[in-house]
Design brief:
The protein is of the alpha/beta class. The protein is built from nine helices and 14 strands. The chain is globular, with a radius of gyration of 19 Å. The protein starts with a strand and ends with a strand.
């Protein structure tokens, strides 16, 4: 059995204890841990090495959110040594913004939990995920089923930017774009070779937190799903969260009477009975 390569982009360093608990669910499965940081942090490096002495840790420029460091990681490893690559990062949990995806509103905090629980929620979850790639020859990428989307509204506005990226890799853009929103996933290592051949971290601009959408990193969020489909594989999720599904149904009822959201254009909008009563630009 080949080890799994794990790339953890640890931008929000206070999240390490939580992520460490998830990584413990790898159990006896062999893995190599690669960690990127955007700031020097000797005490954190010491903590990580205490948990995983063989971890490879380096500081990257803050380019392309978590995607730029992931591309940097690809250039530092021999993908042929691995069957699978697990990509995780410290997506922010804060803020009012809720995203409508697959018929549900999902807060940032819930978004993070769904992704981590689907990938590393328990030792049994991890064993099931790893086994799925042996049992399902056409499985190319695995993430939370609640955050895998093919909704046109999530991708079509970026298609003109996606097409040249796919062209550069010599791959066709799928007619239906399916991707794992949030860019945390388990994938076949070999499927990432086109990115490694054609892109570097330097292709990504310095992260601008005020740019909420439309950057190359957001384009690559979709591209990562596109390259799976273009090479003949599928993006799937097998997690089941009945509590989340029940809450989501209840939330749809609540949202009819009252909703308070931050839009993609960074505007706060409050609606009562679907009627906007407050609209303001936020920082």
């Amino acid at each position: 059995m080949k080890p799994t390569a794990i790339h953890l982009h640890l931008h929000y360093t206070n999240r390490w204890p939580e992520i460490q608990r998830y990584l413990q669910n790898m159990g006896a499965h062999p893995y190599h841990l690669y960690v990127t940081l955007t700031q020097e942090n000797a005490s954190l490096v010491k903590e990580i090495r205490k948990f995983q002495p063989q971890a490879v840790i380096w500081r990257t420029e803050n380019r392309g959110y978590d995607i730029g460091p992931f591309v940097d990681f690809l250039h530092r490893v021999d993908l042929s040594q691995y069957d699978l690559v697990l990509k995780i990062h410290t997506k922010s949990k804060s803020g009012l913004q809720k995203t409508w995806i697959n018929g549900r509103y999902i807060t940032k905090k819930r978004w993070v939990q769904l992704l981590f629980d689907a990938l590393l929620g328990t030792q049994e979850v991890w064993r099931r995920n790893a086994a799925a790639f042996e049992q399902r020859p056409q499985l190319g990428m695995l993430s939370s089923r609640y955050l895998i989307t093919s909704e046109p509204g999530c991708s079509e506005y970026l298609r003109e930017q996606i097409n040249p990226v796919m062209d550069k890799m010599g791959l066709p853009t799928p007619e239906k774009i399916t991707f794992a929103a949030g860019t945390m996933f388990l994938t076949r290592a070999s499927l990432l070779e086109p990115i490694k051949r054609c892109f570097t971290m330097g292709d990504f601009p310095v992260t601008d937190v005020s740019a909420q959408d439309g950057t190359l990193a957001h384009v690559f969020e979709r591209v990562l799903g596109c390259i799976v489909a273009a090479q003949g594989y599928k993006v799937e999720g097998f997690d089941k969260n009945r509590w989340f599904e029940s809450i989501a149904k209840f939330q749809r009822v609540i949202n009819f009477f009252y909703s308070n959201n931050i839009t993609r254009s960074r505007h706060q909008i409050i609606k009562i009975c679907k009627i906007p009563v407050y609209y303001k630009k936020v920082n």
